[in-house]
Amino acid sequence: MKLHVHIFTIALGVLLLAAANPAAAQSKSRMTITEIMSTLKPGQWVQLEGAIQRDLSVLCSEVQILTGDFLDDDWGVSAVVRNIDRMKQEAQILRLPIKFKKDTEFQSDAGVFKSLADVKVGMLIELEGTYLKDGTFLTKEIENESAKLEKKPKLKDEIQAVGKVEKVDAAKRTITLMGITFQITDKTEGKSAVK
Known about the structure:
Helix content: 10-25%
Number of helices: 4
Number of strands: 13
Structural class: alpha+beta
Distance between the termini: 38 Å
Oligomer: single chain
Mean pLDDT: 85
Radius of gyration: 19 Å
């Protein structure tokens, strides 16, 4: 009897949540590879995740189609720093050059992290900013996420990116985002809030 009451209480809570906020109760629907490739269009906002390959392409593990109002500086990327050019005042993730504004906000839970001088090769960083037409990422905020590497060392070979799709090649099953080629495989998971 207690189990039935508990299940009823949970179901009632979910129904009340749905009635109070239908958007919060909406779950993302799963997509097939065919649906992913036929749905995605250049200019559409997505979140892509995957494993970085030796040729600096990415085997895409997850595609999430995003909905909502996005601003030009809502782009994001999280990955390990591959290179730093102190003369140009730039860092690099894969082949993506990262530029810093004079008022870029530096954040870290541990240690000193106040300027480009504190950014190191091999550091896991999370960026927010704008992807520019010249193929560079202008960051407004950078966070040192390196502490996560201790618990999850595989993150050093992964990337997560949020932005507008540049190109979709259905024949090759690739999506280009911020100049980075994400290869769709049979294991890629697709999610969409769009019905």
